[in-house]
């Protein structure tokens, strides 16, 4: 690690949780060691250590914004909590300079019995502001949170969005040196998220150091100076955002499996089924999931996807311009009068490159009866050398509009091999560069 000073310095940080196999083991751990000691026997443990974080070192400099990315359970929240001091490390050290404002677990800093107003004063005081300082900022805090009359109601009556609005507003108005945000923004509505991100930009300009956990690779690339990638409690990469996003995307795709793997997805609600049940994740070549329970039926469900190359065989790599077929097997639970299918192609960092529905493409499809059916999207891979991620949807036209009943956010991916003497990126506009000749007028000086 470099010897540069940091506003946040983390060195050799580890956190182990004690995990009990059963509630009984927890009770045994409470009682038995004392008993064994009384009996003169050597104590033994009834738990095992689970390492949520292992040997993490990183620095965040003044005015720097660092984004932390990783799959669920990779240790992101644990890292943030250790940095904020709400958890104690099992090994290593954390040093943070200045006032730290944190948005950790939703509303974790609020007392639910107190009103919003009382919580503002309580929170800001805990962050070191005097009563006079809080009074001077109070109106601005309330204006930014924009939760109306709720400010005088107990926080336990707030929606999760309101809690985030107030918590974020307090955090940004206490004049922090360090802002730590754990995915909290994803709870707010889009307009509020934008307002927060604009404020984050302003804080960056003011030299606040920011540590941000995000699942959005776009937010990482757009707002962070550096990315930190955690995988199963270990820091596997600390570097430029695009490289971190690429490594994360590669791992994600590798772990989800090769072509034809279906990830779990929620069928979307639709009449006549009252409440849909989640589908089961199944690799393409294993048995399909059992149909949803009778009382919680979905209209239809995509159960298998395969990506086929120009020869009709499963393919993971294509040449630019090849024809690609995306085969999907559908389980239809209820008759569908006007079926409709959607397809979306994205980059590995989640940017939608193209999407379409059969309705947009004016493909009139016959009604579907209950049972299994197989369909194919035929597409041309008119793309540059890169990796592409597919999402699929299926549903029906109701009142002239596409109502999606099931979506697979990840329905597979494919690589288009880079061609010699071509550009890079996503599009393949088949460029040529021509010398079109000098204009006669210019040549004669007008
Ligand atoms: N109190 C606890 N006792 C035991 N294990 C825990 C405890 N808190 C967290 N863990 C485990 O530690 C690991 C890391 O959890 P953490 O919440 O830090 O991950 P994360 O990357 O923030 O996940 P997510 O993206 O889902 O929020 C997980 O496997 C989690 O189950």
Automatic annotation (TrEMBL):
It comes from the Bacteria. InterPro entries: AAA+_ATPase, ABC_transporter-like_ATP-bd, ABC_transpr_TagH-like, Bact_Polysacc_Export_ATP-bd, P-loop_NTPase, Wzt_C. GO terms for cellular component: membrane. Belongs to the ABC transporter superfamily. PROSITE patterns: ABC_TRANSPORTER_2 (PS50893). The keyword Transport applies. This is ABC transporter ATP-binding protein. CDD domains: ABC_KpsT_Wzt (cd03220), Wzt_C-like (cd10147). Keywords: ATP-binding, Nucleotide-binding, Transport. Residues 264-294 are annotated as: Disordered.
């Amino acid at each position: 690690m470099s010897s540069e000073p940091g506003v946040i310095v983390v060195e050799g940080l580890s956190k182990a949780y004690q995990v009990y196999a059963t509630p009984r083991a927890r009770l045994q751990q409470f009682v038995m060691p004392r008993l064994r000691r009384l009996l003169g026997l050597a104590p033994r443990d009834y738990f095992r250590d689970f390492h949520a974080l292992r040997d993490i070192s990183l620095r965040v400099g003044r005015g720097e914004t660092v984004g932390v990315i990783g799959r669920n359970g990779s240790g992101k929240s644990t890292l943030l909590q250790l940095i904020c001091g709400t958890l104690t490390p099992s090994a290593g050290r954390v040093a943070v300079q200045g006032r730290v404002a944190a948005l950790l677990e939703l509303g974790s800093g609020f007392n639910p019995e107190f009103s919003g107003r009382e919580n503002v004063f309580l929170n800001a005081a805990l962050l070191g502001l005097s009563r006079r300082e809080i009074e001077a900022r109070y109106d601005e805090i309330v204006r930014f949170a924009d939760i109306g009359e709720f400010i005088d109601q107990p926080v336990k009556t707030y929606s999760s969005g309101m809690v985030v609005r107030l918590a974020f507003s307090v955090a940004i108005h206490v004049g922090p040196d360090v802002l730590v945000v754990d995915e909290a923004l994803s709870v707010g509505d889009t307009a509020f998220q934008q307002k927060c991100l604009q404020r984050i930009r302003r804080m960056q300009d003011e030299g606040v150091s920011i540590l941000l956990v995000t699942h959005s690779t776009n937010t990482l690339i757009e707002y962070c100076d550096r990315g930190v990638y955690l995988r199963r409690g270990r820091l596997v990469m600390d570097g430029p955002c695009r490289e971190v996003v690429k490594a994360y995307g590669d791992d994600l795709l590798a772990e989800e499996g090769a072509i034809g793997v279906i990830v779990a997805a929620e069928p979307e609600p639709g009449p006549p089924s009252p409440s849909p049940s989640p589908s089961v994740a199944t690799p393409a070549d294993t048995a399909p999931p059992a149909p949803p329970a009778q009382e919680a039926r979905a209209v239809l469900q995509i159960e298998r996807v395969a990506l086929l190359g120009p020869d009709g065989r499963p393919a993971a790599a294509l040449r630019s311009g090849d024809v690609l077929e995306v085969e999907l097997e559908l389980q239809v639970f209820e008759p569908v009068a006007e079926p409709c299918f959607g397809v979306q192609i994205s980059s590995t960092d989640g940017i939608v490159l193209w999407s379409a529905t059969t309705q947009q493409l004016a493909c009139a499809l016959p009604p579907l009866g209950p049972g299994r059916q197989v369909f194919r999207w035929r597409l041309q891979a008119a793309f540059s050398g890169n990796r592409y991620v597919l999402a699929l949807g299926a549903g029906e036209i109701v009142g002239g509009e596409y109502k999606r009943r099931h979506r697979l956010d990840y329905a597979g991916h494919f690589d288009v091999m880079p061609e010699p003497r071509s550009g890079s990126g996503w599009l393949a506009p088949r460029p040529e560069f021509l010398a079109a000749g000098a204009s006669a007028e210019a040549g004669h000086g007008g």
